[in-house]
Amino acid sequence: MLSSLGNPRQAAAQLLNFGLIISTAFMMWKGLSIFTDSSSPIVVVLSGSMEPAMQRGDLLVLWNRNIWAETAVGDIVVYSVKGKDIPIVHRVVRKFGVGPKAKLLTKGDNNHSDDTELYAKGQDFLERENILGTVVGYVPFVGYVTIMLSEHPWMKTAMLGIMGLVVMLQRE
Amino acid sequence: MSQQEKISVYNLADLKNTTDDAIPNYLNSLGFTQSHTLSDVRLGLGYLALLTAAACFAWDYQLGFEATKLPTAAAVALYAVLNTALTVWIFFVERGAVYVGTSPDGRARVRLTSASVRGAVPEYRLTAEVSDAATGRVRETVEVRRGFNAWFDAAGRFVAAPFQVVLAGQVGVIGQADPKRREAAAAEGKGTTGRVVDESVSAGYTPEMLAALQGAEATGAEAEAGKKGGKRRKA
User: Fold this and answer.
1) Does chain A have fewer CB atoms within 10 Å around its N or its C terminus?
2) Active site members of A
């Protein structure tokens, strides 16, 4: 209980427990980032542009190391372009050239036209460095929680508050 | 002296933790020297890991992922090592110790470990390991098992005296440092000799006695408040 705050060692231990939960989650995420070589190895599908393959709320697992083969036509990739924060998951439909400077064109399965409109101003194609990773696995629907949280910010506040309170009041 | 805070008698973790917290108070008051090495090493390892993660977060936030891959990989490895060390320390070195200290004469080292309460049995299980301070050889290991009702009254207040009697009666070194409590334990134990703790013989304090003891320890104001049937006191 809160009375433990009178003892500095116990207070430090309690703070440490709380800190370790957060830091372990963060370091696991970073470890996964390093392992997959992707700054964001797990993403949530936000739009229906890849239906019926991927629904809104699906959780995708990315892999960004081209060990055996280069990114090829038909791969579903997640890319982000300069000036736009939100990464996009679409399929590679055209590829010109080989190597890191190959020109890639993407398109959403459920979209009528290709992605040239979505690229940065003056950009007509993607290069390897724009890609955050190739989709190698997915978990349906799980990511809907994060969509809910970002669309209803009060939920985020409430969740953090409850979590904090539980950690403060519990010792085991 | 003892915690005036009330706990829920149905919360086994609270019962155990409150009892654990009472041990250092008691032993230190008898002149035992508490050693904080175990918890200090744990805190050191833990905060070092936390610092690593914080630094990693800072440079990641400032410089981005691509520019800091190498240090991030190093930080992840270091964090894994520190966390493993911490886990090993907690499970194999600390092993749930609630008190480590040296007896007043400096000759014996005591290590008290309380097992976490399992299932629905409201029982405090304390293991006291007494070793020679000089050689480190274990002299005796005593296991004490007692229902929490021996030192918690019905309202959930911890009453120090009966708990101290149990400790002094069961663990030789503590009894030596506190002859008064040891005699009390011997007097109530009549017949139950040595280390065997008979479950049916509680500390010898009835619930009424616990309440009375609590009243004697409480300040006048609180005792009065108790008489009024737990009505909230005016500030």
Assistant:
1) C
2) 49, 90, 115
d(CA B183, CA B131): 23
SS (H, E, C) A84-106: CCCCEEEEEEEEECCCCCCEEEE
Same domain, yes or no: A79 and A121: yes
- Give this complex's ipTM: 0.81
pLDDT tens across the length of chain B (235 residues): 444 678 888 888 889 999 999 999 999 999 999 999 999 999 999 999 999 999 999 999 999 998 999 999 999 999 999 999 999 999 999 988 999 999 998 889 999 999 888 788 889 999 999 999 888 888 889 999 999 999 999 898 999 999 999 999 999 899 999 999 888 888 876 544 444 444 444 455 666 666 676 665 554 444 444 444 444 544 4
B69 & B170 share domain: no
Q: Which of B43, B49, B52 sits opposite A12 (nearest CB)?
A: B43
* Residue A26 and residue A82 in one domain: no
Show the tokens assigned to B69. Answer: 């891959």
Residue span of the structural domain in which B54 resides: 38-94
Cross-chain Cβ contact B66/A30 below 8 Å: no
Q: Quick check: pTM over 0.90?
A: no
- Domain limits for position A17: 2-35+152-169
Is A84 inside a domain boundary?
A: yes
